[in-house]
Design a protein that fits this description.
Largest sheet: 8 strands, mixed
Number of helices: 9
Distance between the termini: 95 Å
Strand content: 5-15%
CATH topology: Rossmann fold
CATH superfamily: Alpha/Beta hydrolase fold, catalytic domain
Number of domains: 1
Radius of gyration: 30 Å
Order of helices and strands: HEEEEEHHEHEHHEEEHEHHE
Strand order of the largest sheet: 1-4-6-5-7-8-10-11
Shape: globular
Structural class: alpha/beta
Helix content: 25-40%
Number of strands: 12
Protein backbone atom coordinates (compact mmCIF):
# COMPACT_ATOMS: atom_id res chain seq x y z
CA UNK A 1 0.00 0.00 0.00
CA UNK A 2 2.86 2.35 0.93
CA UNK A 3 4.55 1.69 -2.38
CA UNK A 4 1.32 2.49 -4.33
CA UNK A 5 0.83 5.76 -2.48
CA UNK A 6 4.42 6.72 -3.18
CA UNK A 7 4.01 6.00 -6.89
CA UNK A 8 0.82 8.09 -7.07
CA UNK A 9 2.49 11.03 -5.32
CA UNK A 10 5.40 10.84 -7.76
CA UNK A 11 3.01 10.92 -10.74
CA UNK A 12 1.17 13.98 -9.40
CA UNK A 13 4.49 15.80 -8.81
CA UNK A 14 5.53 14.96 -12.37
CA UNK A 15 2.29 16.40 -13.83
CA UNK A 16 2.61 19.58 -11.79
CA UNK A 17 6.19 20.02 -12.95
CA UNK A 18 5.19 19.59 -16.60
CA UNK A 19 2.36 22.13 -16.34
CA UNK A 20 4.63 24.66 -14.62
CA UNK A 21 7.29 24.22 -17.30
CA UNK A 22 4.74 24.77 -20.06
CA UNK A 23 3.52 27.97 -18.40
CA UNK A 24 7.09 29.27 -18.17
CA UNK A 25 7.66 28.48 -21.85
CA UNK A 26 4.56 30.46 -22.89
CA UNK A 27 5.56 33.41 -20.72
CA UNK A 28 9.10 33.38 -22.10
CA UNK A 29 7.87 33.31 -25.67
CA UNK A 30 5.58 36.28 -25.06
CA UNK A 31 8.43 38.22 -23.42
CA UNK A 32 10.70 37.57 -26.40
CA UNK A 33 8.05 39.00 -28.75
CA UNK A 34 7.64 42.00 -26.53
CA UNK A 35 3.90 41.36 -26.45
CA UNK A 36 1.65 40.32 -23.57
CA UNK A 37 -0.23 37.02 -23.94
CA UNK A 38 -3.05 37.41 -26.49
CA UNK A 39 -6.57 36.75 -25.22
CA UNK A 40 -9.23 35.17 -27.45
CA UNK A 41 -11.05 37.85 -29.51
CA UNK A 42 -14.54 38.85 -28.39
CA UNK A 43 -16.87 39.05 -31.40
CA UNK A 44 -19.82 41.40 -31.49
CA UNK A 45 -23.23 39.70 -31.47
CA UNK A 46 -24.79 38.68 -34.77
CA UNK A 47 -27.54 40.95 -36.08
CA UNK A 48 -31.07 39.64 -35.56
CA UNK A 49 -32.53 37.56 -38.35
CA UNK A 50 -35.17 39.22 -40.55
CA UNK A 51 -38.73 37.99 -40.43
CA UNK A 52 -39.86 35.53 -43.13
CA UNK A 53 -41.16 37.24 -46.25
CA UNK A 54 -44.15 36.69 -48.55
CA UNK A 55 -45.97 34.29 -46.26
CA UNK A 56 -49.19 32.92 -47.75
CA UNK A 57 -52.38 33.96 -46.02
CA UNK A 58 -56.10 33.55 -46.60
CA UNK A 59 -57.78 36.09 -48.83
CA UNK A 60 -59.94 38.92 -47.49
CA UNK A 61 -63.57 38.41 -46.60
CA UNK A 62 -66.30 40.79 -47.71
CA UNK A 63 -69.77 40.63 -49.23
CA UNK A 64 -68.50 38.73 -52.29
CA UNK A 65 -67.82 34.97 -52.40
CA UNK A 66 -64.49 34.17 -50.81
CA UNK A 67 -61.59 34.13 -53.27
CA UNK A 68 -58.91 31.54 -52.34
CA UNK A 69 -55.28 32.65 -52.47
CA UNK A 70 -52.43 30.59 -53.99
CA UNK A 71 -50.54 28.16 -51.81
CA UNK A 72 -47.36 28.53 -53.89
CA UNK A 73 -45.98 31.55 -55.79
CA UNK A 74 -47.31 31.91 -59.31
CA UNK A 75 -50.37 29.75 -58.80
CA UNK A 76 -53.46 30.66 -60.84
CA UNK A 77 -56.49 30.07 -58.59
CA UNK A 78 -59.88 29.47 -60.25
CA UNK A 79 -63.05 28.63 -58.28
CA UNK A 80 -64.67 25.42 -59.49
CA UNK A 81 -68.20 26.79 -59.68
CA UNK A 82 -69.58 30.13 -60.82
CA UNK A 83 -71.22 32.37 -58.19
CA UNK A 84 -74.74 31.26 -57.46
CA UNK A 85 -74.13 27.61 -58.39
CA UNK A 86 -76.69 25.30 -56.75
CA UNK A 87 -73.79 23.03 -55.80
CA UNK A 88 -72.52 25.63 -53.29
CA UNK A 89 -73.84 26.54 -49.84
CA UNK A 90 -74.74 30.19 -50.25
CA UNK A 91 -74.87 30.77 -46.49
CA UNK A 92 -71.17 29.81 -46.15
CA UNK A 93 -69.64 30.96 -49.43
CA UNK A 94 -68.14 34.10 -47.86
CA UNK A 95 -66.22 32.29 -45.10
CA UNK A 96 -62.41 32.31 -45.34
CA UNK A 97 -60.34 29.18 -45.52
CA UNK A 98 -58.25 28.36 -42.45
CA UNK A 99 -54.59 27.39 -42.79
CA UNK A 100 -52.60 25.11 -40.52
CA UNK A 101 -49.02 26.37 -40.88
CA UNK A 102 -45.86 24.35 -40.29
CA UNK A 103 -44.23 25.15 -36.95
CA UNK A 104 -40.75 24.53 -38.37
CA UNK A 105 -40.85 25.94 -41.92
CA UNK A 106 -42.04 29.55 -42.27
CA UNK A 107 -44.73 29.97 -44.87
CA UNK A 108 -45.37 26.27 -45.45
CA UNK A 109 -49.08 25.44 -45.37
CA UNK A 110 -49.46 21.96 -43.95
CA UNK A 111 -53.22 21.69 -44.35
CA UNK A 112 -56.40 23.67 -45.04
CA UNK A 113 -59.93 23.47 -43.62
CA UNK A 114 -63.17 25.45 -43.95
CA UNK A 115 -63.31 25.17 -47.73
CA UNK A 116 -66.67 26.41 -49.01
CA UNK A 117 -65.67 27.84 -52.39
CA UNK A 118 -63.67 24.89 -53.80
CA UNK A 119 -60.99 25.74 -56.34
CA UNK A 120 -58.04 24.62 -58.40
CA UNK A 121 -54.58 26.17 -58.29
CA UNK A 122 -52.73 25.75 -61.59
CA UNK A 123 -48.94 25.63 -61.98
CA UNK A 124 -47.83 25.41 -65.59
CA UNK A 125 -44.52 24.39 -67.18
CA UNK A 126 -42.20 26.38 -69.45
CA UNK A 127 -42.88 25.86 -73.16
CA UNK A 128 -39.67 24.01 -74.06
CA UNK A 129 -40.22 21.45 -71.31
CA UNK A 130 -44.00 21.22 -71.40
CA UNK A 131 -45.42 17.79 -72.31
CA UNK A 132 -49.00 19.08 -72.14
CA UNK A 133 -49.79 16.51 -69.44
CA UNK A 134 -51.63 17.80 -66.37
CA UNK A 135 -52.08 16.11 -62.99
CA UNK A 136 -54.79 17.25 -60.60
CA UNK A 137 -53.68 16.47 -57.04
CA UNK A 138 -56.29 15.49 -54.43
CA UNK A 139 -54.66 15.51 -50.99
CA UNK A 140 -55.63 13.26 -48.09
CA UNK A 141 -56.47 14.06 -44.51
CA UNK A 142 -59.33 11.73 -43.64
CA UNK A 143 -61.87 14.25 -44.98
CA UNK A 144 -61.07 16.21 -41.82
CA UNK A 145 -58.24 18.32 -43.22
CA UNK A 146 -56.73 18.79 -46.69
CA UNK A 147 -53.01 17.97 -46.41
CA UNK A 148 -51.85 20.18 -49.26
CA UNK A 149 -48.25 20.43 -48.05
CA UNK A 150 -46.91 16.89 -48.43
CA UNK A 151 -49.55 15.67 -50.86
CA UNK A 152 -49.90 18.61 -53.25
CA UNK A 153 -47.45 21.51 -53.00
CA UNK A 154 -44.35 19.29 -52.80
CA UNK A 155 -45.27 17.67 -56.12
CA UNK A 156 -45.29 20.92 -58.11
CA UNK A 157 -41.47 21.11 -58.55
CA UNK A 158 -41.20 17.32 -58.82
CA UNK A 159 -43.58 17.08 -61.77
CA UNK A 160 -42.25 20.30 -63.31
CA UNK A 161 -38.94 18.52 -63.81
CA UNK A 162 -40.72 16.03 -66.09
CA UNK A 163 -42.65 18.69 -68.00
CA UNK A 164 -45.95 17.93 -66.27
CA UNK A 165 -48.35 20.72 -65.32
CA UNK A 166 -49.70 20.46 -61.78
CA UNK A 167 -53.08 21.45 -60.40
CA UNK A 168 -53.81 21.54 -56.66
CA UNK A 169 -57.43 20.73 -55.86
CA UNK A 170 -59.05 22.31 -52.82
CA UNK A 171 -62.17 20.20 -52.37
CA UNK A 172 -64.81 20.39 -49.67
CA UNK A 173 -64.47 18.32 -46.48
CA UNK A 174 -66.75 16.19 -44.32
CA UNK A 175 -65.70 18.13 -41.22
CA UNK A 176 -67.23 21.25 -42.78
CA UNK A 177 -70.56 19.55 -43.43
CA UNK A 178 -70.06 18.05 -46.89
CA UNK A 179 -70.42 14.51 -48.23
CA UNK A 180 -67.14 13.00 -49.50
CA UNK A 181 -69.04 10.68 -51.87
CA UNK A 182 -71.10 13.50 -53.36
CA UNK A 183 -69.66 16.97 -52.83
CA UNK A 184 -65.96 16.05 -52.87
CA UNK A 185 -66.33 13.69 -55.85
CA UNK A 186 -68.29 16.40 -57.70
CA UNK A 187 -65.40 18.78 -56.98
CA UNK A 188 -62.92 16.32 -58.51
CA UNK A 189 -64.97 15.78 -61.67
CA UNK A 190 -65.68 19.50 -62.01
CA UNK A 191 -61.93 20.17 -61.70
CA UNK A 192 -61.24 17.83 -64.64
CA UNK A 193 -63.86 19.63 -66.75
CA UNK A 194 -62.50 23.04 -65.81
CA UNK A 195 -58.89 22.17 -66.66
CA UNK A 196 -60.04 20.71 -69.98
CA UNK A 197 -62.10 23.84 -70.76
CA UNK A 198 -59.06 26.06 -70.19
CA UNK A 199 -56.58 23.65 -71.82
CA UNK A 200 -55.67 26.00 -74.66
CA UNK A 201 -55.04 28.97 -72.35
CA UNK A 202 -52.79 26.87 -70.09
CA UNK A 203 -51.03 25.02 -72.98
CA UNK A 204 -52.39 21.69 -71.73
CA UNK A 205 -53.19 18.75 -74.00
CA UNK A 206 -56.92 18.08 -73.43
CA UNK A 207 -56.28 14.34 -73.88
CA UNK A 208 -53.60 14.16 -71.16
CA UNK A 209 -55.49 15.35 -68.07
CA UNK A 210 -55.74 13.07 -65.04
CA UNK A 211 -56.14 13.05 -61.27
CA UNK A 212 -53.98 11.58 -58.50
CA UNK A 213 -55.50 11.08 -55.05
CA UNK A 214 -53.79 10.29 -51.74
CA UNK A 215 -55.58 8.33 -48.99
CA UNK A 216 -58.90 10.19 -48.61
CA UNK A 217 -58.04 11.98 -51.87
CA UNK A 218 -58.03 8.58 -53.59
CA UNK A 219 -61.70 8.39 -52.59
CA UNK A 220 -62.05 11.12 -55.23
CA UNK A 221 -59.71 9.80 -57.93
CA UNK A 222 -61.03 6.22 -57.89
CA UNK A 223 -64.74 7.10 -58.38
CA UNK A 224 -63.75 9.72 -60.96
CA UNK A 225 -62.57 6.80 -63.10
CA UNK A 226 -66.07 5.32 -63.36
CA UNK A 227 -68.59 8.12 -62.63
CA UNK A 228 -67.68 10.66 -65.32
CA UNK A 229 -70.61 9.78 -67.61
CA UNK A 230 -73.16 10.21 -64.84
CA UNK A 231 -71.64 13.54 -63.80
CA UNK A 232 -71.64 14.86 -67.37
CA UNK A 233 -75.28 13.87 -67.89
CA UNK A 234 -76.31 15.54 -64.64
CA UNK A 235 -74.42 18.75 -65.47
CA UNK A 236 -75.42 19.25 -69.08
CA UNK A 237 -77.83 22.17 -68.81
CA UNK A 238 -77.41 24.69 -71.66
CA UNK A 239 -76.79 27.43 -69.10
CA UNK A 240 -73.78 25.53 -67.69
CA UNK A 241 -70.66 27.05 -69.29
CA UNK A 242 -68.91 23.67 -69.05
CA UNK A 243 -71.75 21.68 -70.59
CA UNK A 244 -70.32 19.34 -73.21
CA UNK A 245 -66.83 19.29 -71.72
CA UNK A 246 -65.98 15.76 -70.58
CA UNK A 247 -65.02 15.06 -66.98
CA UNK A 248 -63.39 11.74 -67.95
CA UNK A 249 -59.82 11.57 -66.59
CA UNK A 250 -57.24 10.29 -69.07
CA UNK A 251 -55.44 8.53 -66.20
CA UNK A 252 -55.83 8.16 -62.44
CA UNK A 253 -53.37 7.76 -59.57
CA UNK A 254 -54.64 5.87 -56.51
CA UNK A 255 -52.08 6.32 -53.74
CA UNK A 256 -52.51 4.43 -50.42
CA UNK A 257 -56.28 4.76 -50.97
CA UNK A 258 -59.27 5.01 -48.74
CA UNK A 259 -62.28 2.87 -49.69
CA UNK A 260 -62.85 2.72 -53.45
CA UNK A 261 -66.22 2.12 -55.17
CA UNK A 262 -65.39 -1.61 -55.04
CA UNK A 263 -65.09 -1.86 -51.25
CA UNK A 264 -66.34 -5.09 -49.63
CA UNK A 265 -67.23 -6.74 -52.93
CA UNK A 266 -69.33 -3.91 -54.39
CA UNK A 267 -69.61 -4.12 -58.17
CA UNK A 268 -70.66 -0.81 -59.73
CA UNK A 269 -70.60 -0.77 -63.55
CA UNK A 270 -67.22 -0.02 -65.07
CA UNK A 271 -67.20 1.98 -68.32
CA UNK A 272 -65.21 0.20 -71.01
CA UNK A 273 -63.29 3.45 -71.56
CA UNK A 274 -62.31 3.65 -67.90
CA UNK A 275 -58.85 5.26 -67.74
CA UNK A 276 -55.57 3.51 -66.98
CA UNK A 277 -54.64 3.56 -63.31
CA UNK A 278 -51.49 3.55 -61.22
CA UNK A 279 -52.04 2.14 -57.71
CA UNK A 280 -49.57 1.95 -54.83
CA UNK A 281 -49.62 1.24 -51.10
CA UNK A 282 -47.60 -0.32 -48.32
CA UNK A 283 -48.59 -3.91 -47.56
CA UNK A 284 -48.85 -5.52 -44.15
CA UNK A 285 -47.94 -2.24 -42.42
CA UNK A 286 -50.92 -0.55 -44.07
CA UNK A 287 -53.09 -3.63 -44.53
CA UNK A 288 -56.56 -2.06 -44.75
CA UNK A 289 -55.51 0.50 -47.38
CA UNK A 290 -53.70 -2.25 -49.29
CA UNK A 291 -56.91 -4.30 -49.33
CA UNK A 292 -58.81 -1.30 -50.72
CA UNK A 293 -56.08 -0.83 -53.35
CA UNK A 294 -56.32 -4.48 -54.32
CA UNK A 295 -60.13 -4.31 -54.60
CA UNK A 296 -59.82 -1.57 -57.21
CA UNK A 297 -57.06 -3.41 -59.08
CA UNK A 298 -58.97 -6.71 -59.10
CA UNK A 299 -62.15 -5.07 -60.41
CA UNK A 300 -60.32 -3.33 -63.26
CA UNK A 301 -58.34 -6.46 -64.08
CA UNK A 302 -61.54 -8.51 -64.18
CA UNK A 303 -63.09 -5.92 -66.51
CA UNK A 304 -60.03 -6.08 -68.77
CA UNK A 305 -59.25 -2.33 -68.56
CA UNK A 306 -55.80 -1.82 -70.12
CA UNK A 307 -52.71 -0.48 -68.35
CA UNK A 308 -53.74 -0.80 -64.71
CA UNK A 309 -50.56 -1.18 -62.66
CA UNK A 310 -50.21 -1.81 -58.91
CA UNK A 311 -47.27 -1.79 -56.50
CA UNK A 312 -47.83 -3.15 -52.99
CA UNK A 313 -44.63 -2.74 -50.93
CA UNK A 314 -43.69 -5.20 -48.20
CA UNK A 315 -42.37 -2.53 -45.84
CA UNK A 316 -44.14 0.72 -45.05
CA UNK A 317 -46.86 2.42 -43.04
CA UNK A 318 -49.75 4.75 -43.76
CA UNK A 319 -48.96 8.50 -43.59
CA UNK A 320 -49.88 9.92 -40.21
CA UNK A 321 -49.37 6.64 -38.33
CA UNK A 322 -47.55 7.04 -35.01
CA UNK A 323 -44.39 4.93 -34.74
CA UNK A 324 -42.88 3.31 -31.65
CA UNK A 325 -40.52 6.26 -31.10
CA UNK A 326 -43.43 8.72 -31.08
CA UNK A 327 -42.72 10.13 -34.55
CA UNK A 328 -45.35 10.17 -37.29
CA UNK A 329 -45.07 8.66 -40.73
CA UNK A 330 -44.70 11.26 -43.43
CA UNK A 331 -46.51 11.34 -46.75
CA UNK A 332 -46.02 12.24 -50.38
CA UNK A 333 -42.47 12.35 -51.73
CA UNK A 334 -40.42 11.63 -48.59
CA UNK A 335 -38.03 8.72 -49.03
CA UNK A 336 -39.26 6.97 -45.86
CA UNK A 337 -35.80 6.17 -44.55
CA UNK A 338 -34.69 4.84 -47.95
CA UNK A 339 -37.09 1.90 -48.06
CA UNK A 340 -38.43 0.86 -51.51
CA UNK A 341 -41.84 2.41 -50.74
CA UNK A 342 -40.04 5.76 -50.69
CA UNK A 343 -39.45 5.46 -54.45
CA UNK A 344 -43.05 4.89 -55.57
CA UNK A 345 -43.11 8.26 -57.38
CA UNK A 346 -40.39 7.06 -59.76
CA UNK A 347 -42.41 3.92 -60.51
CA UNK A 348 -45.28 6.26 -61.39
CA UNK A 349 -43.01 8.20 -63.77
CA UNK A 350 -41.93 4.90 -65.38
CA UNK A 351 -45.59 3.97 -65.92
CA UNK A 352 -46.49 7.48 -67.09
CA UNK A 353 -43.64 7.54 -69.62
CA UNK A 354 -44.44 4.03 -70.86
CA UNK A 355 -48.02 5.11 -71.66
CA UNK A 356 -46.81 8.08 -73.69
CA UNK A 357 -47.86 10.92 -71.39
CA UNK A 358 -44.35 12.45 -71.38
CA UNK A 359 -44.28 12.99 -75.15
CA UNK A 360 -44.84 16.41 -76.66
CA UNK A 361 -48.39 17.84 -76.68
CA UNK A 362 -50.69 16.70 -79.47
CA UNK A 363 -49.15 13.24 -79.93
CA UNK A 364 -51.64 10.46 -79.26
CA UNK A 365 -50.57 8.45 -76.24
CA UNK A 366 -50.05 4.72 -76.09
CA UNK A 367 -52.72 4.71 -73.38
CA UNK A 368 -55.25 6.25 -75.76
CA UNK A 369 -54.41 3.83 -78.58
CA UNK A 370 -54.78 0.81 -76.33
CA UNK A 371 -58.14 1.96 -74.95
CA UNK A 372 -59.34 2.51 -78.52
CA UNK A 373 -58.21 -1.01 -79.42
CA UNK A 374 -59.97 -2.37 -76.33
CA UNK A 375 -63.20 -0.60 -77.29
CA UNK A 376 -63.07 -2.24 -80.72
CA UNK A 377 -63.28 -5.69 -79.13
CA UNK A 378 -66.66 -7.35 -78.55
CA UNK A 379 -68.12 -6.41 -75.17
CA UNK A 380 -68.64 -9.16 -72.61
CA UNK A 381 -71.74 -11.27 -73.13
CA UNK A 382 -71.96 -10.47 -76.83
CA UNK A 383 -71.42 -14.10 -77.79
CA UNK A 384 -68.29 -13.21 -79.79
CA UNK A 385 -65.63 -13.83 -77.21
CA UNK A 386 -64.15 -11.11 -75.07
CA UNK A 387 -64.86 -13.01 -71.85
CA UNK A 388 -63.48 -11.95 -68.51
CA UNK A 389 -64.81 -8.39 -68.67
CA UNK A 390 -67.48 -8.72 -65.99
CA UNK A 391 -68.91 -5.37 -65.00
CA UNK A 392 -67.69 -3.38 -67.99
CA UNK A 393 -70.24 -1.20 -69.82
CA UNK A 394 -70.21 0.29 -73.29
CA UNK A 395 -70.11 3.91 -72.12
CA UNK A 396 -68.11 6.29 -74.33
CA UNK A 397 -69.06 9.82 -73.30
CA UNK A 398 -65.81 11.20 -74.70
CA UNK A 399 -64.23 8.89 -77.30
CA UNK A 400 -60.59 8.36 -76.50
CA UNK A 401 -58.25 10.54 -78.51
CA UNK A 402 -60.95 13.01 -79.56
CA UNK A 403 -60.74 16.62 -78.48
CA UNK A 404 -63.54 17.61 -76.11
CA UNK A 405 -66.32 19.86 -77.26
CA UNK A 406 -65.37 23.51 -76.91
CA UNK A 407 -67.07 25.42 -74.14
CA UNK A 408 -67.18 28.96 -72.89
CA UNK A 409 -64.93 29.09 -69.81
CA UNK A 410 -66.63 29.69 -66.50
CA UNK A 411 -66.65 33.17 -65.06
CA UNK A 412 -65.19 32.55 -61.60
Amino acid sequence: MRICNLLNRNRIKHWITQIFALALLVAATSAQDGQPPVAAPVRPPLPPLPAPMALPKPGPTNDAPYVPQPILPGGVVVPLYPPGSPLLKMERIREAEQYNMSQAVPGRISSIVNIHNPSIEVHTVDGGLNTGAAIILAAGGGHNTLNVGGESADFVPFFYNYGVNTIILRNRLRRDGYSPKIDAVNDALQAIRLVRAYAREWRIDPNKIGIMGFSAGAELSSPAAILFDEFDRTNSAPADPLSGVSSRPDFVGIIYPGPTPFVRGASPPIPRNAPPAFITCAGAGDRVHAIWANEYFAAMLQAGIPNVEMHIYGNGRHPGDTLSDGSRMTSGLTDRNAIPFGTWQYRFIDWFRDLGFLQKPGIETKASKEITAFLSQPPPGSGRGGGGNRGATNSQANPVGAAPKAATPANP
